């Protein structure tokens, strides 16, 4: 069964996607290919969008960083989400290094909102809290700071 040719031109489809929200270059390329456009047409549309600055991975990475911080994610989780969306490692590194956010204080705020001020009284509870913070993307030092513990996990 052959796909029917798309009704929109590839440039119209690309601009349509970008008008709804920012996309990473890789993400937009994949969406256009999935719609049945040829690789040559997709590359031409990507270049067209970049020429007009409608498609910019650095801007997209900055948006993902702000969004991740708002969701209470740590830098490790944000980095992973950017990689999943296809943002190049160099851009990810530049955006995260340029960020002057206090990850330790954010980790403490996230832990306080989730667990309150009650101390973890059992090893099982400590492990549960530690796993939650790891899932959120905080590193070991940030988690220890957030949970206010010098204990070994």
UniProtKB/TrEMBL annotation:
Domain RecX second three-helical, which positions?
56-96
The RecX third three-helical domain extends over 102-147
Span of domain RecX first three-helical: 11-49
Alphabetized, the UniProt keywords read: Cytoplasm
Record has Transmembrane as a keyword: no
Q: Which InterPro entries match?
A: RecX_HTH_1st, RecX_HTH_2nd, RecX_HTH_3rd, Regulatory_RecX, WH-like_DNA-bd_sf
Q: Where found?
A: Cytoplasm
**Family from the record:** Belongs to the RecX family.
Main function:
Modulates RecA activity.
PANTHER family, A to Z: REGULATORY PROTEIN RECX FAMILY PROTEIN
What is this protein identified as? Regulatory protein RecX
**Which source organism does the UniProt entry give?**
Photobacterium atrarenae
Its organism's taxonomic lineage begins at: Bacteria, Pseudomonadati, Pseudomonadota, Gammaproteobacteria, Vibrionales
